[in-house]
Automatic annotation (TrEMBL):
Polar residues bias locations: 279-292
Source organism, top-level taxon: Eukaryota
Organism placement in taxonomy: Eukaryota, Viridiplantae, Streptophyta, Embryophyta, Tracheophyta
Mode of membrane association: Multi-pass membrane protein
Family: Belongs to the drug/metabolite transporter (DMT) superfamily. Plant drug/metabolite exporter (P-DME) (TC 2.A.7.4) family.
Name of the protein in its database record: WAT1-related protein
Region (Disordered): 268-292
Residues that span the membrane, as ranges: 6-25, 79-100, 120-139, 151-171, 183-204, 216-236, 242-260
Record-level GO cellular component terms: plasma membrane
UniProt keywords, alphabetically: Membrane, Transmembrane, Transmembrane helix
Gene coding for it: LOC104599853
Keyword Mitochondrion attributed: no
A Pfam family it matches: EamA
Residues annotated as domain EamA: 121-259
Amino acid sequence: MNLYVLVVYGHAIGMLTTALLALLFESFEMWKIKGVLGVWTNRPKITLPVLSNIFFLGITGMEKLNITRFSSQAKIGGTLVAFAGAAFMTLYKGIVVISFSSPHSAHSSKLRESSEKDWMKGSLLLIVSYVSQAAFYILQAPTIKKYPAPLSLTSLTCLVGTLQAAIVTVIVDHKASSWRLNWDITLLSPIYCGVMIFGVTIYIQTVVVKKRGPVFLTAFRPLGTVIVAIMALLILKEALHLGSILGAVMMFAGLYMVLWGKEKEKGDKPTARDLADQVEQSKSSNVEEISENIVNV
């Protein structure tokens, strides 16, 4: 099945599924929402936690950072360790530790040739994807506060993704036969992709961002690299190298450091600057509330 068409069908099914659930469970929330302006972009793991922290620390100011505090040092150090582990796991192979297939098999040779051929193009596309995804999580944080309906927000996200993917697919693939579905894996794949990946996954991410913040969410993203390595070993019969194991250990250590720093940060006493920022945020929220009341009147 054409991958571009799969993305279109996946987003469309995810949109329909979450829209139906939103009508059933979020009718009251939708009634309370008076109006929101925004654009939700398409979502496509290594650099994502670093990019998100850079955005939050340097641009948005939503994530507080005090280099003199041990909690902030742990968050920075954990982010760097997790990034280093993911990069180490991807770039360094080392000796084969576990392998369920012959290294000279035809399947292994094809995978090796394909990865070497498209390595540079894939790396550039991944960088663009990670930057876009980090920006998506950052925009999601203030959006979910003003639009407290995660199911309908997920449906809107999938709607925009459907439109974008459809435009790209029409430009890239002009064959009408590519859109044909049969009663086989070509039908099951879009359904699973739409319900689980574009529906359930985005919804869970939205809820996590609402409750714990984007940094907490992105701290777990490097685990995807570990899961992919394990699934590739069990399903695709790819070899598990020493670099993958060492990189996974580093990522788990970095994740623990980030989560420990976030937890310890709750017990830190606020500084004078923190109190001043809280006052400014309170004033801004009060001004926005008064403005909304005036407009409604």
